[in-house]
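Why should sequence recovery work at all? Because a backbone constrains its sequence more than one might expect. Tight turns favour small or flexible residues, buried strands favour hydrophobic ones, and helices have their own preferences. The token representation captures these environments compactly. In the example below, the structure is given first.
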């Protein structure tokens, strides 16, 4: 018997559309690594090499993406759901593969915790189930918990401001013993937070809580995705203080190809990126094979693979998907441009998500 890990990765990522029309949410890039990569690496660093990924939406892309970045000695089993089984229901489907303590995490939330410490706490507490918690400023979009002496006493999903009794939330990472699976009914959708956990409390099962050490972020919206790239570049980047380089940076391109630009961290620069003279890049993520012209300004944005931005354009708080081309003197603010778009010269795009093939000149929202 050995410790196994599960990653729940079957959701559709509806809040992140149109980005998730082309890629599953767990593969959204964060500082050079797909979102799901952080929880898998957290498992691996804790010595857990056997993982099961529950998949559904765009499972072919998900499987291909995971196999490209996983550790060479990591063993990954995929469970593909024909119909949505719910968070707990997806684990019930793979119960025959679980014979010892196991870890469950979400593949579409940024989770970069010290899993070894959590497992150690779980075992020393002789817990049947441990829920990892984190704190947020606004708990209204999450499931909050009340905890006393490391035991959870109450749950409430998505409280209104007057209902919120805590800013401790369920971080979507659990350590469980196999017998917990007996409480999950087979053959029907079933949810951890809404159904299983209240049931366990009602049955008198002690639910332990542990405040996670590390980084956690819900990446449900484009702004969250941008923030996630900044957070992880700040965490894993190298501090630089040169003539044109400042702050925490991760740079995988040749310096000669970006030397003419002013790059301010936290910024991620992928491979084979070329940046023109007089261009300023602040707090952004620029992925592989991106070409950026002269006198361009990019702030708080993400440019995915093979994007081209021509001279004099400005991008602010936006996500530009793969293969999109932005011509000269354009402005894009707080928007998402879907893959393979062609934005004509002098276009202005504000607060929209664009998914057509060609955007005519002088478009505005």
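From this structural description, the recovered sequence reads:
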């Amino acid at each position: 018997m050995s410790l196994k890990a599960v990653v729940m990765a079957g959701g559709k990522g509806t809040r992140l559309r149109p980005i998730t029309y082309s890629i599953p949410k767990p593969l959204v890039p964060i500082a050079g690594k797909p979102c799901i990569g952080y929880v898998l690496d957290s498992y691996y660093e804790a010595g857990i090499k056997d993982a099961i990924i529950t998949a559904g939406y765009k499972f072919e892309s998900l499987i291909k993406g995971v196999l490209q970045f996983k550790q060479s000695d990591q063993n990954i089993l995929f469970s593909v759901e024909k119909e949505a089984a719910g968070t707990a229901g997806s684990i019930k489907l793979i119960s025959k593969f679980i014979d010892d303590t196991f870890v469950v995490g979400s593949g579409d939330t940024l989770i970069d915790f010290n899993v070894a410490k959590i497992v150690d706490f779980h075992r020393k507490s002789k817990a049947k189930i441990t829920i990892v918690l984190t704190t947020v400023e606004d708990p209204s979009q999450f499931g909050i918990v009340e905890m006393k002496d490391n035991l959870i006493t109450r749950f409430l999903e998505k409280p209104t401001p007057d209902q919120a009794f805590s800013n401790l939330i369920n971080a979507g990472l659990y350590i469980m013993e196999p017998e917990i699976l007996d409480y999950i009914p087979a053959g029907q959708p079933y949810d951890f937070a809404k159904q299983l956990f209240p049931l366990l409390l009602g049955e008198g099962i002690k639910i332990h809580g542990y405040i996670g050490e590390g980084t956690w972020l819900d990446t449900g919206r484009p702004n969250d995705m941008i923030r996630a790239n900044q957070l992880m570049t700040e965490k894993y980047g190298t501090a630089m203080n040169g003539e044109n380089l400042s702050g925490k940076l991760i740079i995988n391109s040749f310096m000669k190809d970006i030397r003419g630009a002013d790059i301010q961290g936290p910024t991620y620069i992928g491979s084979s990126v070329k940046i023109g003279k007089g261009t300023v890049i602040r707090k952004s993520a620029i992925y592989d094979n991106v070409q950026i012209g002269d006198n361009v300004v990019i702030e708080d944005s993400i440019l995915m693979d093979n994007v081209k931005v021509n001279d004099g354009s400005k991008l602010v708080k936006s996500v530009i998907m793969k293969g999109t081309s932005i011509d000269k003197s354009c402005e894009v603010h707080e928007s998402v441009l879907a893959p393979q778009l062609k934005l004509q010269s002098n276009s202005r795009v504000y607060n929209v998500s664009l998914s057509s093939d060609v955007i005519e000149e002088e478009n505005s929202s």
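A few observations help interpret the result. The chain has two domains: 4-218, 231-359.
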